From TrEMBL:
Region called Disordered, residue ranges: 267-287
Cofactor: Mg(2+)
Domain of life: Bacteria
Protein name per the record: VRR-NUC domain-containing protein
Pfam family, one: VRR_NUC
Residue stretches making up the VRR-NUC domain: 204-253
Keywords: Hydrolase, Nuclease
Length: 287
């Protein structure tokens, strides 16, 4: 299956996050702010154009979710993540319970995350390098894997008239833990008209993905089956994140899950698995 290009576009996504995420920077040059709005609108228009592509590729998935609208998500719980696979920093030991948490729709989530890993949105970022005698400016590509995955989940939710069981980065009040609902009430509230996931309301909590029990009801904590923290390569788990989500879910460890991409995705095969399958062993080093 070919991976869709969910969004293309310039530096708007990263720039918007920098501008909107920092109050001091908001006041920086009115003309730059205006340009950001234009560029962000272009990105949003590109996302809208890609929705049809997402609808085509995920046609069977969307149809299935629509037919299951009245069924609890817990009915579809089957497998957990692979805590036997280590990717460094003892994540598989420290967060074993969250990794092994069984969550519904893991195949769908895995497909989206693997798309994002292979075909992430790329945006240029200007950097300055100091070399003896001068300072030069250059440009590097920043890969927005998490943003790409979230945009796909959001597009699917939109195609299902905001009744998907998978909610991308919904916001909750950091003090009362109340869900910040949009219109309709099953749609996450967004502040920006240009970039859906930034800025966030001050002090809010926003898990990468929330799976609701009943898809036709709001994503209040009482209706959440699991809050899922998604980690792509080189993005390490932070203890505070897991603690915050555990607090949000009323300290119910069964409602918090960790999904490392690709290690915990459905169908993942480690190098050791592939070698065993092919009858090959890693040669032993001589002493």
């Amino acid at each position: 299956m070919a991976a869709p290009v969910i969004a293309a576009g310039g530096a708007a996504a990263v720039r918007a996050m920098l501008v909107w995420g920092n109050r001091a920077f908001r006041a920086h040059r009115a003309n730059e702010a205006a340009q950001l709005a234009v560029e962000s609108a272009e990105v949003l228009a590109e996302i809208s154009k890609r929705k049809k592509e997402v609808e085509t590729v995920l046609k069977d998935v969307i149809k299935g979710l629509k037919e299951e609208i009245d069924i609890k998500s817990s009915t579809f719980v089957r497998t957990g993540g692979n805590a036997t696979v280590s990717r460094g920093r003892n994540e598989n030991v420290t967060y074993k319970h969250y990794i092994e948490r069984k969550i519904p729709f893991r195949p769908v989530i895995s497909t989206v995350c693997q798309w994002a890993l292979k075909s992430p949105i790329k945006v240029p970022r200007r950097i300055r390098k100091k070399i003896p005698g001068e300072v030069i400016e250059t440009t590097i590509d920043v890969l927005l894997k998490q943003t790409t995955a979230s945009l796909v989940f959001e597009a699917v939710d939109d195609l299902l008239e905001w009744q998907s069981p998978l909610k991308a980065e919904p916001n909750y009040n950091g003090t009362t833990y109340a869900a910040m609902l949009g219109e309709p009430s099953t749609r996450p509230q967004r502040i920006s008209d240009y970039f859906p996931f930034w800025p966030r309301p001050k002090g809010s909590l926003a898990p990468d993905l929330v799976i609701v029990e009943y898809r036709q009801k709001p994503f209040d904590v009482s209706n959440v089956f699991a809050a899922v923290e998604i980690k792509f390569p080189n993005d390490w788990v932070k203890k505070k994140q897991m603690t915050d989500y555990l607090r949000l879910m009323n300290k119910d460890t069964e409602k918090v899950a960790l999904l490392r991409v690709p290690e915990d995705c459905t169908g993942y095969k480690s190098d050791a698995d592939e070698k065993a399958k092919n009858g090959r062993q890693t040669p032993r080093r001589g002493k």
